[in-house]
Amino acid sequence: MDLLEYQGKQLFAKHGVSVPEGRPAASVQEAVEAADDLGYPVVIKAQVLIGGRGKAGGIKLANNRAEAEEHARAILGMDIRGFTVHELYVEKASEIEEEYYAAILLDRSTKKPLAMLSRMGGMDVEEIAERDPNAIIRIHIDPLIGFQAYHGRRLGYEAGIAGDVVRPVGALLAKLYETFVEEDAVLVEVNPLLVTKDRQVVALDSKFTVDGNALPRHPETAAFRDPSAEDPQERMARERGLTYVKLDGNIGILGNGAGLVMATLDVVAQQGGQPANFLDAGGGSKADAVVSAVEVILSDPKVTAVLFNIFGGITRCDEVARGLIEAFNQIDVKVPFVVRLDGTNDEEGRRLLAEANLPNVHVEKTMLGAAAKVVELAR
Ligand code: GDP
Ligand code: MN
Questions:
Q1: Å from CA of 59 to ligand 2 middle
Q2: What pLDDT, on the 0 to 100 scale, is given for residue 86?
Q3: Ligand 1 site-directed mutation target among 42, 48, 59, 194, most atoms within 8 Å of CB
Q4: How far is ligand 2, taken at its centre, from the CA of residue 192, in Å?
């Protein structure tokens, strides 16, 4: 789960990572009150789960109340790369002398946290890497040893940051690492990591991703979840207990078991199709779960065809077939379905489907055949 900037900064502050003083605001009036409280100049910042707000006009400096009001009014409701701004963060303005980049993320390939530092902050990390791949210094941290002072010094010296801030930047990185571990994060990114005119080191921005599976351990973070900011299909699926991830394509996918669903996405892509979602109906899927899943898939208007890929183990194919028939009874289905049933009670399942004679449902025997068929139908 991704956090908004101010939420991430709250967690930073809790672990001693320095951040400017600020207040969230959900209306123009709240923003002006927050600005009056903090004292001018302030920065009014759009709170959306996407970067590049500065370039998009979602971050503005206000020197007085009139400017604060004007900027808050302009930014609230603004669209930033597909995200509507519902919340603002009002922050005491900082005087910038240097902008660095710092991040700690979980590197799954080495199974270790990876700490990164660059003296070229402020721009996208991809852009930094493109301009000068050596400008980003990376060190893997052994989780049993943790982040030590020498990690901070090495990152600081190799990144070529100003000599006088090597120690304070190292100290901030150590606290950032502590935040990463204690909050069960998979990514904490600070861009820019700021050195102010009076040589204070401050996190000016936060990008914070926590491991959703660890949320039960963090009620404070779980409370940050904002249903209105979520994708509507993903919310619908979560409320129904389905594992669903929305993707960019137009072929709806349902399978039972995460591995099978991922393999299905691969095969569909290999056949030249673009999956619209990942949906794992889970092992032992019963008919009502199937109905529920079909509703979620079809609620995405981009879906032009659906592939059901079921391998029956605990799941019984006849149950899935009943669910599909029930779904067609309840919902006015307008797109073609391709169904592949294999494993426990597959013959029974296919017989039920044949008897029901559902419009526009194509039964295929193999996964590859089913993928080829759905790609053809989706066009
Ligand atoms: P992003 O564009 O979404 O990454 O948002 P950031 O929070 O990183 O802000 C973008 C840029 O706005 C920063 O790199 C700064 O140059 C500028 N900015 C943000 N806050 C302040 C501030 O308090 N003072 C000044 N002078 N510039 C700021
Ligand atoms: Mn930033």
A1: 10
A2: 93
A3: 59
A4: 6
pLDDT (mean) for 242-261: 92
Distances (CA, A) of 240 to 79, 234, 259, 291: 29, 10, 21, 11
CA dist 107 and 110 (Å) reads: 6
Pairing of β 42-47 and β 59-62 = antiparallel
Q: Ligand 1 pocket by C-beta < 6 Å: which residues? A: 43, 51-54, 59, 93-94, 96, 99, 122, 191-192, 204-205
What value does the CA radius of gyration of the chain take, rounded to a whole number of Å? Answer: 25
Predicted confidence at residue 306, as pLDDT, reads: 97
- Beta-bridged to residue 47, according to DSSP, are 87
46-55, pLDDT tens digit by residue? 999 888 899 9
Residue with the bigger pLDDT between 131 and 141: it is 141
Cβ contacts of residue 109 below 8 Å, gap of 6+?
Answer: none
Atom of ligand 1 nearest to the CA of 92: 23
Among residues 6, 89, 100, 101, the one annotated as catalytic is 101
Place of tokens 């404070």: 220
Write down the pLDDT at residue 183.
98
Instruction: Please state the atom number of ligand 1 nearest to the C-alpha of residue 91.
Output: 23
204 CA → ligand 2 middle, Å: 8
Which ligand 1 atom lies nearest to the CA of residue 93?
23
For 4-13, 85-94, 126-135, which range has the lowest pLDDT when averaged over its residues? 126-135
Confidence of residue 285 (pLDDT cuts 50, 70, 90): low
How far apart are the C-alpha atoms of 204 and 20, rounded to whole Å? 7
Question: For ligand 1, atom 15, which residue shows the shortest CA distance?
Answer: 122
Given a cut of 70, whether residue 284 has pLDDT beyond it is no
Q: Count CB atoms within 10 A of the CB of residue 173.
A: 28
- Residue 5 CA, closest ligand 1 atom number: 7
- Give me the DSSP letters along 212-224: GGGGGG-HHHHTT
Give yes or no: 177 in active site.
no
Active site residue 6: no
Per-residue pLDDT, averaged over 8-20, amounts to: 98
CB 219 within 8 A of CB 152: no
All domains of the chain, ordered by start, with CATH? 21-92 (3.30.1490.20), 96-222 (3.30.470.20), 230-378 (3.40.50.261)
